[in-house]
Amino acid sequence: MPDTIPTVPAAEPVAPVAPLAPAAAGKPVASAAPGAPGRAALLRAMEELAREHGVNSVGLREVARRAGLSHAAPTHFFGSREGMIRALALEGLALLDDELCTAQERAAHLPGRERLVADSLEFVAFAQRNPAHFDAMFRTPSIARGDETLDRARLAALGGLRALVVEVHANGDITGDVESTFLQLCAMSHGIASLAVDGVLHGFDEIAPSDEAMGVAERIIRAQVEQLP
Q: Residues 63-93, buried b or exposed e (16+ Cβ, 10 A)?
């Protein structure tokens, strides 16, 4: 037996683990939901293709190919072609709600009838900027009527216009029936927007470019609002 017992070298001290840095104040932690990026990519692809060919002419495989995802991805996220169109419609209605509210804020200092003109004109401008959303929202027969979520979103998007009609009426700038006036403005704005999206909003001689089409739209809207009782 050896005279001395070999010693085990002492372990080096372990450096303390630095605490994890807290999240920056005011910055939310990024969502780890795996489906969110794919869903968003599909909606953007759907919007692009709908701008090129119309909502009713776009197929799910084409959307998946444009988004760079598998052909099963649209069904996974939306269930069906109608489900994807419905999602695009809901997204568009939220955008319309925001943009009409912004337009009303910008026009808040104007006389009552001018505010009605501004709101109606913004509806047309929205349709021109977002033709795919507009088609999905209002001009797609494949989306079943009676969808409570979609119906509520439509009412919410147009609720600001109705509230504006009520306010302008209360101030004495118009005197007709509130509901009839609201429906008249909705029908007028929707009809002009549809003509603008289809590229047929023009004068007697020639089709106007999109910027000139807005001038035509404004003249029509002003004429109609001036005739309100």
A: bbebbebeeebbeebbeebeebbbbbbbbbb
164, two tokens: 């504006």
The CATH number of whichever domain residue 207 belongs to comes to: 1.10.357.10
Residues 70 and 131 in one domain: no
- Mean pLDDT by runs of 10 across the 229 residues of the chain is 43 37 30 58 94 89 92 91 92 94 92 95 94 90 73 90 94 92 94 88 56 83 93
pTM of the shown model: 0.76
Instruction: Region of 176 please: left (phi>0), alpha (psi -120 to 50) or beta.
Output: beta
**∠ at Cα 195 (193, 197), nearest 5°?**
70
List the one residue out of 229, 209, 73 whose CA is nearest residue 165: 229
Q: Are 57 and 87 found together in one domain? A: no
Number of separate domains in the chain: 2
